[in-house]
Specification:
Elements lengths: L2 E9 L5 H11 L3 E13 L2 E7 L2 H14 L4 E4 L5 H13 L5 E3 L14 H11 L5 E2 L3 H8 L6 H12 L5 E5 L7 E7 L4 E7 L9 H14 L4 H17 L27
Parallel strand pairs: 1-2, 1-4, 4-5, 5-6, 6-7
Antiparallel strand pairs: 2-3, 7-8, 8-9
Helix pairs in contact: 1-7, 2-3, 3-4, 5-6, 7-8
């Protein structure tokens, strides 16, 4: 049985966070586990409240799961504080989690901050060097690279800058750039792979970043190479956006019930 761990916050509305991650792991036929970093009061209208868990309890969850079950891959999402970033990085090293996907969650789509300002430096210094893949959106990439991104060339420059922080692969997501086409840039320190696709018009896109990083982690857990895992996760997110249905009074989530394509999923072992 392939196993993946999400280290992230809870979305009470079910569209993002560990809820989206676990749904995605299941879609990819991967056994999902979780270590919660924070609990949010959240729905399709926004984030109404955040309760950050003590870093020591995050550690307790990680040691409980990894010491017993183990994980073939892991991903991080909302880590909230510098202290949590630091202890997560310490446990990742202690348990030798090499297939780590870092989704550097900093700000919710609604504009609500999800990472303390002081924690950004911790992400850059202690977590990114452990990442096999990091998946920033344009706002996050601009923070990590220290420069605003305006076009595809800027995405490539940001990927280069972020790569110097230590991750082996950088996936800069271009969905926030205007225009009918959407670009994602994957950089491995040597070459760029640019994925271009038509923009999918929908107001129900909550949880896309969490879902993408979880899909990549699921692929890695199944033994896929990074480019293969990224492509399968991108296809899953695109299909989930096309099939999204309105839930709630605001921007709803993508549809996690779609079947992954190109993920090489057959009988699980």
């Amino acid at each position: 049985m392939h196993k993946a761990l999400t280290i992230a916050g809870s979305d009470s509305g079910g569209g993002a966070g560990i809820q989206a991650d676990l749904k995605t792991f299941t879609a990819f036929r991967v056994y999902g586990m979780s270590a919660l970093t924070a609990i949010t009061a959240q729905n399709t209208l926004g984030v109404q409240g955040v309760h950050v868990l003590p870093a020591e309890f995050v550690v307790a969850q990680l040691r409980s799961v990894l010491g017993d079950i183990g994980a073939d891959a892991a991903k991080t999402g909302m880590l909230a504080t510098a202290r949590i970033v630091e202890v997560v990085a310490r446990e990742v090293r202690a348990f030798d989690l090499r297939a780590l996907v870092v989704d550097p969650v900093m700000v919710a789509a609604s504009g609500d901050p999800l990472l303390d300002p002081g924690a950004v430096e911790a992400v850059k210094m202690v977590l990114l060097p452990l990442a096999l893949v990091v998946t920033p959106n344009l706002d996050e990439a601009a923070i990590l690279a220290g420069e605003k991104i305006r076009d595809l060339a800027g995405m490539k420059e940001a990927a280069r800058a972020i790569h110097t922080l230590g991750p082996r692969h950088v996936l800069v997501k271009g969905g926030h750039l205007p225009g009918p086409q959407v670009f994602d840039v994957l950089y491995d320190g040597r070459a760029f792979t640019v994925r271009e696709g038509p923009r999918i018009e929908t107001t129900n896109s909550h949880g896309t970043g969490c879902t993408l990083s979880a899909g990549i982690a699921a692929g890695l857990a199944r033994g896929q190479a990074v480019p293969t895992a990224v492509a399968a996760a991108q296809a899953y997110v695109a299909e989930g956006l096309r099939a999204a249905v309105a839930i709630g009074k605001g921007g709803g989530p993508l549809n996690h019930l779609v079947a992954p394509k190109g993920a090489g999923i057959g009988e699980s072992r």
